[in-house]
Design brief:
Elements (H helix, E strand, L loop, with lengths): L1 H15 L3 E4 L3 E4 L11 E3 L5 E3 L7 E7 L8 H12 L3 E7 L11 H12 L18 H7 L1 H4 L12 E4 L5 E5 L8 H4 L3
Length: 190
Amino acid sequence: MLKLLVTSTVLFSCMANTNTVSMNNDVSTPVNVIQKSIYDFKVEGLDGSTIDFAQYKGKKILIVNTASECGYTKQYEGLQALYEKYKDRLVIVGFPANNFGGQEPGSNSEIKEFCKKNYGVTFPMAAKISVKGDDTAPVYKWLCSKSENGVLDAEIKWNFNKFLIDESGKMVAKFDSKVTPMSEELTSKL
């Protein structure tokens, strides 16, 4: 019994000095790896304010990469209608991006004015970012990488891709550009 106790103590001491935790004797996971959550992100708003995703805990979040000169730009109207209909349990955050065909050439102030004047947008809009390539914004790296979001890998192929996050910050689904904001495919998940 004493030999078993000594062996256990030595084994425990050795394990305590490593940077990994072994589970099921065949998988090692780094102790200091902490999965980021959408709630860890703060981004600049179109108006220079800060959009803190932690303030949206308890609501679903729909994140959309937007553009003012795209064939899908009319989806702003549907996004605003969706926001108004479900705003007690859903927040929409638009991310203007100029990654596809130069379809978002404007400055933050020009984008803000365009959205307000043409579509009456009242949901939060982030400052213009990049959603793909070497300069991808950190929040979009999280959205598009299963190793970061824990759920799925995704590729942004055009403007108006949509990511739905649940009330606890977990990725639910990604919708391509052709899925309209008020479609059954999207609203059934709200």
